[in-house]
């Protein structure tokens, strides 16, 4: 009888103790990694919200600058004294109103010290998108990556709303911000581009959409047969490829 009355304590062998410690350690590590993942997600969401707010501030400031320049330009008179005429008399003074909105775009600096201008504005009514288009001073990869955190960026091409292919790259945050919803555009959708050199808005109609590998830059070709075009570029949801959306001025 005594031989079968074995206490519970005898079953807690060193191997069981080791396994218990391993399970406990794994549980603690799982909780730790879960907390880290939640923290990363919260920080990423905060970072995206911060980027959105910064982008809207940049656009608001650029548009305010446009208004200020228009007001100044409309009020300034320029007096030009011509050379003397052949008979020795002085040519008349010509006074003109500088109602030309053509002006230099003010330079700005990012937090990392990169210099850029806000080239213009992109509006996509279907997606509720409205952002400034930044143009970096050096067009380096590091500069572009920095500016992309702030707003869509000019990647390649001529001046806005001129003959050629103006290429704009934007982040896909897999939400409603920046260029995340751009891949949902279809042929016939409208994209509005305002350039801040002449404060002129041109409407473009989407005519093509496709995916390429990251190192395929054929979409930036300037061979447009004399047409004015834009190309929007953003990552696929898994960031392995690139969406290309082509649009042509109406």
Structural notes for this entry:
This protein has helices at 14-75, 141-148; strands at 77-81, 93-97, 108-109, 115-124, 129-136, 153-156, 164-169, 190-195, 200-212, 228-235, 242-249. It has 250 residues and is an alpha+beta fold. The chain has a domain at 49-74 and 105-249: Beta Barrel (Sortase, Chain: A), CATH 2.40.260.10. It is elongated. Helices cover 28% and strands 30% of the residues. The strands form two sheets. Strands 3, 4, 5, 6, 7, 8, 9, 10 and 11 form a nine-stranded mixed sheet that branches. It has a two-stranded antiparallel sheet with strand order 1-2. Mean pLDDT is 79; it is low at 71-102.
Can you tag this structure with a few keywords?
two-stranded antiparallel sheet, elongated, alpha+beta, Sortase, Chain: A, 9-stranded mixed sheet, 28% helix, 250 residues
